[in-house]
Amino acid sequence: QVRLVESGGGSVQTGGSLRLSCAVSGLTDSRYCMGWFRQAPGNEREGVAAIYFDDSTRYAESVKGRFTISRDNVKNILYLQMNSLQPEDTAMYSCAGDEWHGLSCLDGDNLRYWGQGTQVTVSS
Questions:
Q1: pLDDT tens profile 92-106
Q2: CA end-to-end span of the chain, whole Å?
Q3: Fewer CB within 10 Å: N-end or C-end of the chain?
């Protein structure tokens, strides 16, 4: 059984930083990908960052240069380091993952396993 549990959300001021964590269990396939997604009220879900089995990464244009996705394969934790946060980054952030089938892991429709989400609020 796959389980993803996020933590690390909170409230920060503009320009601040947060690091989100996603504890992963049960995802044992050697070729998998993981991603971070966010959704603000009234907005569609947005793929923020993805990391693939070969450690390649992809980012949404809106966060390039500010966010970094990484993982600790020993602890089975996925991270999202978020710097230079802006009010428009305010959203519920969720991690997701699945076996990689050659499709973009920035598209949440391609991933089956999701965490419950953690709220990030950036105030001006």
A1: 999 999 999 889 999
A2: 41
A3: N
What's the sign of the alpha-carbon dihedral 46, 73, 102, 115?
negative
Look up residue 45 and give its two tokens.
């879900």
Kind and range of the H or E element at 40?
none
Tokens (6 digits) for 91: 């959203």
pLDDT tens across 37-76, in order? 999 999 999 999 999 999 999 999 999 999 999 999 999 9
How far is residue 25's CA from residue 4's CA, in Å, rounded to a whole number? Answer: 7
Q: How far apart are the C-alpha atoms of 60 and 43, rounded to whole Å?
A: 15
Q: Give me 50's structure tokens.
A: 């993805």
Q: What's the Cα-to-Cα distance from 85 to each of 49, 90, 121, 124, rounded to whole Å?
A: 15, 9, 9, 10
